[in-house]
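Kindly go through the following sequence and its backbone structure tokens. Advise at your convenience whether the structure tokens fit the sequence:

___
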Amino acid sequence: MSDHVKQLLSLVHDAGRIALRLMDDIHPELKADTSVITEADRAISALAQQRLKALIATGQHVLIDEEDPRKSDYFDEAFLDRTPYVWSIDPIDGTRVYANHMPHYGVSIGLIKERKPYLGAVYFPTLKELFYCDGVNAYLVKNAFCWNAERMLIKPVDEQLSSRSVFILSDEMGEDFAWRSSDCRYLVLSSAVTEFCWPAAGRACGSLSRVHLWDFAGSWPIVEKAGLKFRNVKTGQPLDRLEISAFQRTPPWKLKDYYILSSERNYPLLRQRLSFSGE
């Protein structure tokens, strides 16, 4: 295991302990954009900043953190060109889910190397499930960080759509699109970590979302090892690299377009089931 992988797993483990410790005393607040923030978000953000401080000081690494007010400063092509390692963390992904004591929130952190997804870890503390990619393979660990942990290799998945299939939709569904299918059904789970990790584990055939970089940075290398890609709903082009042109400047680091996460074969089939406003 490389030092970066060890650091990644240690960070999500300790972040998960913080999330569990603070879950019984949640006092959620609303940020300016009406999203929810809790003390756990702030504490995990501070932990990540402290753990990666030495790497960031080298000038070769940067941390794009959802809760860092400086995150807009890194929205610059020239900066990314001269910074080979980009870490991105969502301290609590699915904060509204977490604030309501639902179990499918997670801690997500990814490392992008030379603009390409490289390492990632997503930890569901309440579910005791860990998804991670070590740069070579991706794994699902059940009973993560416990004596009886069970690690399983994530292999490419390409589910044939049927009445059993589940497609995970963004909670923006009512505003921008509708689902047209009498077989494959949809779920709205309101946490990006489930939208991405669960298809990689074969629990869903894919997902649709338009999220921020920190929402998918941890899952990005994991889903690629599962044979899945984020494909633009307008062009069908896969999201293979960290390109400023794919994101909005305001709010910073949010994807401009919706992306379907799926296998190559299922992309056109799922796209046909979606009806977007204006179509």
